[in-house]
Every structure is written in C-alpha cells, then in structure tokens.
Design goal:
The chain is an alpha/beta fold and 296 residues long. It contains 13 helices and 11 strands. Helix 8 crosses helix 10.
C-alpha cells in the first residue's frame, strides 16, 4: 500500500519521501517506486526521495503509516520522537483503537484510515491489482470535518484516489476486523485456496457464524454498526447468507486480496489478540471463531 500511495502522490507532482530499509531501499534508490499491474505486467516507476530512518528533527507536512499492525511497535517510537510533523495518518487494520498512538504522539497528531488496495513485492516491483479509482477511507478521531481532513482529502484526490471521510473510523476498523479475521482463518485453513474456502458450504457457514459472533461482541461493547452491508449479512437466514457472502467475495476479487495470506499471518495474529481482549471484556463466547482461529 505504501508504495502504491507514494507512486501516485509523486505522479501528482507532490513532494514524496519513502522510508525503506535493506534491499527495498536499494531498489527504490536505483529504480524508483516501481509498480506492475497484474493485468498488463508492464511496469512503470517514479523517482522519489528515500530515507532509512525518521530523525527527530525531520519535518514533513504529513506522514502516512502504511505498515501492518504488527510493526507499529517499531515505528511508533520514531514518530513520537519526531515532534516537527503535525499530521500522522495510520492507514491499516486496527482493532484496539488509537490509544497507544495518542499516548505517544498526542491526540492532535493522529488520524486513522484504511486503503482499499493491495500489492505484493516481487523483486524490484510491486505487483498489484489495478483499479480505475482506488478508495481510501480516512477520519479524525472525533469524527469531525476538520481543515486538515479537507487538506489531506485534497492531496489524495489530486493523486487519483477516491477519498471517503468516515465519521467513526475507529469503530469501522473494529467491524472490518470482525469480517476479515474469520475469512483469513478459513482461507489459511483451506490451504490458501479461495475456491476451496468459498466452495465449501460448511466452511462458509462457519465464517458467517464467526462474523456474527464478532458483531455481537462489538454491539455489547456499545459500538453501533459502521459497515451498512453487515446489517444484511447478519439478518439473512443462513441459506441466503452463504450465497450472498459468496457473491460479495467474488465481487471483491478475494483471490487477489488474499495473495499475501502467508505474509499477513503476523498481523493477523496481532489483530486476533486484540479482538480476544475485546471479547474478554464482555460476557459473550465465540465458539465458532475460536475453532477457526486455530489455523493461525
């Protein structure tokens, strides 16, 4: 996600710097940020500045953090020490909320978001599924329509993204996790085969049951639905819910989204731990999800 974001921002003639290490840094320094759409296989690149560390005295208008949740503990200390960057947008999965980011950076610096894009590093290039207009959801912690949210939205739209201002990004991310965790567990259980998962009615039934268990946990904690499509998934009888979810997954081109299944396991484990802590603060049990999560 970070490379796709950097490429498009640079393509929009914005001043972009990428933080990378090791061989990835060497590739970017030599070849630029290189993207390869999966439908054409023809790679293109954009030159950007590249650094391997964020120093306390570095000053940027905006830092986009596009790493897995399992890597936050490595980047937060550097962001905390860097006092000259006023805006830090965390783009990615997050169950426990912004508490640690707020504690280390201060509430006024933190925004949350989620990019609907995915890619895999293949040598020098990022191979990704091209879309006519990729969406990014972003929001202030208080859900307000701030000047900086308008400014960031303008930057991302200039780079060709469809930006959605979300009034409750924190809760949206919790419900998103309640969806992707059962799906990812079932996908891993099926041997990283999408058709093996979606073609098994029993497996799909368990996925939906596990999702509903997660929704119940969040509702007991007082979190209203943040994904409207989930209301239909929860309300349908199972004989209709299974084909409905299967259609939705096919529309989402799940096979490409899950290409990083093995690489994502570290992040999934962290998200699972965070969701388990949420569940532990309720009186509810999640037997179907507990069985699925064994695949992690």
């Amino acid at each position: 996600e970070g490379s796709i974001l950097a490429y498009q921002l640079q393509d929009a003639r914005l001043d972009v710097t990428v933080l990378a290490r090791g061989q990835r840094r060497d590739y970017i320094e030599r070849y630029g940020v290189m993207l390869e759409p999966s439908d054409t296989g023809r790679s293109t690149s954009r030159k950007v500045d590249v650094i391997e560390r964020l120093f306390p005295e570095d000053a940027y208008d905006l830092v986009n953090v596009a790493v897995g949740k399992n890597h936050y503990s490595r980047v937060l200390p550097f962001l905390s020490a860097n006092i000259y960057t006023p805006n830090v947008l965390f783009l990615g999965n997050n169950v426990e909320g912004p508490g640690e980011m707020v504690r280390l950076l201060g509430r006024d610096r933190v925004l949350l978001g989620f990019p609907f894009m995915n890619g895999t590093i293949e040598g020098r290039a990022i191979r990704y599924k091209a879309a006519e207009r990729t969406s990014i959801s972003i929001g202030e912690l208080d859900g307000g329509a701030s000047e900086r949210l308008t400014w960031i939205t303008g930057l991302l739209e200039k780079a060709g993204f469809n930006v959605v201002a979300n009034r409750n990004m924190e809760v949206w991310l919790k419900y998103h996790a309640a969806v992707i965790l059962p799906l990812a567990c079932a996908y891993i259980k099926a041997g990283y085969e999408v058709k093996g998962m979606t073609g098994d009615r029993g497996e799909m039934t368990d996925v939906i049951k596990a999702m509903r268990e997660g929704f119940s946990v969040l509702k007991e904690l007082g979190h209203p639905y943040a994904l409207d499509s989930l209301r239909r998934l929860e309300g349908l009888p199972m004989m209709l819910a299974v084909p409905y979810l299967r259609r939705e997954l096919n529309k989402a081109e799940l096979e490409y989204v899950f290409t990083r299944g093995e690489a994502m396991k570290g992040e999934l484990e962290v998200l699972d731990e965070e969701f388990s802590r949420l569940k532990g603060s309720t009186s509810l049990q999640t037997p179907t999800y507990d069985e699925l999560r064994k695949s992690l």
